[in-house]
Amino acid sequence: QAQLVESGGGLVQAGGSLTLSCTASGFTFEAYAKAWFRQAPGKEREGVACISSVDGRTIYADSVKGRFTVSRDSAKSTMYLQMNSLKPEDTAVYYCAAGACDYTGNFYWHLADYRGQGTQVTVSS
Description:
Blueprint lengths: L2 E5 L2 E4 L4 E8 L8 E6 L6 E6 L6 E3 L7 E6 L4 E6 L8 E7 L15 E2 L3 E6 L1
Parallel strand pairs: 2-11
Antiparallel strand pairs: 1-3, 3-8, 4-5, 4-9, 5-6, 7-8, 9-10, 9-11
């Protein structure tokens, strides 16, 4: 059964760091462009970071550029999101998805081939 499982969420103070993981099983994760999304209460889901399946090129939303870093470990079928200098406005449920973004910076949650269930990140002020 193909699935994506996120982990690493939690409660952190403003200015702190967290690293999220997204581990795939049941399909060839490295064949897909992969993305992180987030959804805060009362807001639409937004694309946060994308990493290419071909050359590892990355794209970030302006709101996280310079603070978040997306990476992958193909041997472990895992993608990471290193989040530094966290702000209260980063509070959201974070999701990963495969086949969910492209080189032009477009994010496709509803068209993604695979989607995770999410992990909560809460940043206190």
